[in-house]
Amino acid sequence: MNVVFGGDVRNGLARDVCDIERFRVLAWDLPYHGKSLPPDGVTWWRQPYRLTLAFFLDFIERFSSELALSRPVFMGCSMGGHIAVDLARFRPGLCRAVIGVEAASRTESGSLDFLDHPRIGNDVKADLMLGLTGPTAPEARRREIGWGYAQGAPSVFRGDLHFYGEEHDLRGEASRIDTSRTSVYVLSGEYDWSATPAASRELASEIPGAEFVFSPRAGRHMGRRAFDVTGLVVEEEVGLELAQELALGQPAQEHRLVDLDVPVHQRADRALVRGAGPRR
Length: 280
Description:
Elements: E1 2-5, H1 12-18, E2 24-27, H2 53-66, E3 73-77, H3 79-90, E4 97-101, H4 122-130, H5 139-150, H6 156-167, E5 183-189, H7 197-206, E6 211-215, H8 224-247, H9 264-271
Helix pairs in contact: 4-5, 8-9
């Protein structure tokens, strides 16, 4: 099964997922990010960089098409968490499941222009991200998160937040997500003060059939904990696929069966995440 990670390939969350051999894991650098250069044919030096919802959705759809992916599982954190639920709403069926880590219906960000100012160094952006991590996270991993954000060109962080804090808005839309076409899982860490646990829980409660997993003592970029839940989600989706094959009398591939009557958040609570909050 394909797992598409919606974020910088240097992110520790992507690395944790790549540790496992059971999945085919695909991760990208968006244009302007990581080692991806600005796109050809665009006079990007004459206009401010702004990540838009339309581009993000089209990029993921085209990415899946070019690689001939058959309904992958999509996982993203932060702006990747927001686009995860946007995929479920605006591209239903493209993914068999989406996992929105630190996703919310809306995150009010206020004025963001100070983040693209010659007097604001990239160390400020690193410190902002460090403040979103949990106190129990390994210090080396926390510092990697800050280092990654400090590597961007001056305008990139501000441009990404255009999508995160200005364009992404599922208020009045989340309830229209059809989880029979794309399953939805929302994860939240206790110490995320941007997309708060309350906001993530509210989003999940608005989506019929969505599951919410709360991770105490964790913050944004929860790393291994998000990976653990991702493994459970993939197992559940494989189990559903197997059940459908058996119901249709089709040859069933060899899959490890899971108890589909037990919600993911309960299995995460028992085995992996410890202390997952109640479902909505």
